[in-house]
Each structure stands twice: as structure tokens, then as C-alpha cells.
Amino acid sequence: MKFTRGWKSSRVPLGVLSIGLGLMPQAVQAQGCIVARQTTPVVTDDPYLLRSEWQISATYRTLRANTHFAGIAELPERQRMRNNVVNKQQLLDIGVTHAVSRRLNLTLGIPILIYGGWSVPVPVAPPGQRQVQSADGIGDISLTGRYWLADPDRHLRGNVELGLGIKAPTGNSNAKDRFPDASGTVFTVMPVDQSIQPGDGGWGINLDLQAFQRVGSATLFASGTYLVNPRNTNGTESSVLFLCGGTIPPNLRRFKFNSVPDQYLARVGVMAPVPKVKGLSVSVAARVEGVPAEDLVGGSEGFRRPGYSVYVEPGVSYSTGAHTFSLNVPVATQRNLQKAIGGYRVDGTLADYIVLAGYSYRFGAHRRSAASPKDSGMSKPHSMTPEPSKPQ
User: Fold this and answer.
1) Model confidence pTM above 0.90
2) Which domains does the chain have, with CATH numbers?
3) Which of 179, 239, 255, 297 could form a disulfide with 190 if both were Cys (CB 3.0 to 4.6 A apart)?
4) Per-residue pLDDT tens for 292-323?
5) How many other C-beta atoms lie within 10 A of the C-beta of residue 65?
6) Which pLDDT does position 346 carry in this prediction?
């Protein structure tokens, strides 16, 4: 468990993940050892909210990451030696959206880390008892405004929506638990790993884009979100102190405190209704999410695990009246733990797959029939409801 230059073994878990296209919130996400916590919505049945209408959504995410990577190379020897890290995440993303008008809506995103667990055997060699550090709590709450570029009443088959929001440092970025020393006998209270900290400690700016286009009975969709985190470090001691046995070497002192990194997520896919089953649709998407080595704005010092994961994401959704239920299972096809500033690279655990279960409910406005398929000569476009990211 060393923090080394190049490809030597080391380890550190990740934080959070999400998916997306639509009208929903920003919240909780996790993939193992990278703090990727952006979120975007999942496609459902009616993309447009009426003026004064409300939409409430909740997405539950769970994953278990125990496969180590350095760069794109998997490190199976960690599991064979039984000194691998196990990272578990249970996340709930709550979103409350209000339509100010047909084109403008506001979403309050409330991420909740139900459980974040990070464990490693101590001593490492030979592997001793696995020591679990855990954290939970409300993450970094966000408020995002989104605006449809084209008039929804005139563009039922396709549109583009731009979003701009702010993320507040409401989550605890210095959650602590008991850490053992190298012998596993002396315990000290220290900050838990960055990947399971409920918050990141910085104000952020959310940049968001969503789009859909009907092609026959199918719907093509795309979404992207980028979190700009200007703050450099947050003052929380990183796991490097624990990994180095309590003393950080001079060449690693820049990693003493956790970084407040930018995060990104992109998703492109297609959704189609299931014939003869009203309200049921299936989808498949390509998805990439991660953390860059350097931020767009501000400093990029401190400890972070830059990298990304690429997924194939099958999904199913069912809509009945004002209710929509969804289930998506992103399956990893490529994972890459990249080099940090200074050329240092750490290996990390990344999840093989993620399970996302979502629900949304609309209320507060009379659903008009003026834009129905019968009146417009075309079937309804599919909408977008969100998924979580990890609490920040």
C-alpha cells in the first residue's frame, strides 16, 4: 500500500458516480477510488414540465469495488495476496425540480451518503484482520437552473437544454474514524479516505447540457456535466499519511491534504418503447465519468486520484401516470487511474458494475392534452429523470 511514482503498487478508493439526461438534480456518485460525484438524469416518458409543475425524484445507488488498477492495467495480485482495498457505497440522491416556465426549471439536489466503507487488512503483509473505516451523512447540496433552447410546445421531437448551477460545501469533508497503525494494534482517530468523505469542502459551479432527438419511435439522447471546483485543497489530511505509516516523505508532502477536484460525466444512448407494453421502455448508453489531473480554474495541488471509467449502461423504465420507475446497471468496459501532478500514480479499486434504482413523481399542474401525440401527429418524446452521484 504505497503511494509511489510510476506503476508501483499502492491503493486508494473512490467516491461517487451518476448518469444522465433531463430535468433532475445533482447528487451522489461513486465508482471505487476516484471522487467522481457528478450526476445527470435517466430518460423517461415526457421531457417537458408544465409551468408551475413539480417533480420529485429519488435514486438509490449501490456498488462494491475491490478490483485494483494502475493506469488501465488491472492488478489481480492484490486480490491474490488478500491485501486489496474493498470500497462499498450506498447512495441516495434526492431531487426537487420546479418549472418556473415551460422552458426554465430549477432543481435542488440533495445527495445523501447512506454508507461509505473503506477497508484494508492490517498488517498488510502477511494480511491481518480487515479494518473498516466508514462515514455517512448529507453531501454537498446544489441548485441548478436549466433552460430549453427551443420552444417545448413547438419542438416535441427534439431539443437542447443548457444548465448552470452552484454547489455548496454542505457535506462534511473531514469525517473521521479509527485507523490502526501498521501492526494493527494501536488506533488513532483520523480523516477517512477521500472516496467516502460526504463532502469535498469547496464551492463549485455546475455546467450542464442535455439533448434528445426522436427517430421513429426511438429517442436518441445525450448529456454532459462538468463541476468546476476552484478551491485548491480543503485542509483535510489525506490517506497518504496512513499509507506511508504516519510519516509523509518530503517528495509527497504536496499530497498531505485532500484536493478539491473538478469532476465530469458524459452519456450518449438510445431509448425505445417495448411494443404492446404501455409505459415500458428499454435503453442502452455509453457513459464516461471521472476526475481530471488538473482543474479548469484554481490550483490543483493536494491529494486526488485522477482517472475515468467507461461503461456500457443498459436500462429499463416504466411510467404510469405521474410515476416513473427506472433501473440502470452500468457495466465497466475500461478503467484508468491516471498520473497525478508530479508524475505520481496510485492504483485504486474501481467497481465492475453499479446498480441504480430510481423513482420520480410529478404534481402541481394540470397535464394538458394540447401537445398529445394525437393532436401533434407524433408520439411523445421521452423525458429525462435523474440518477445520483455521490454526496460531496
Assistant:
1) no
2) 4-385 (2.40.160.40)
3) 179
4) 999 999 999 999 999 999 999 999 999 999 99
5) 30
6) 73
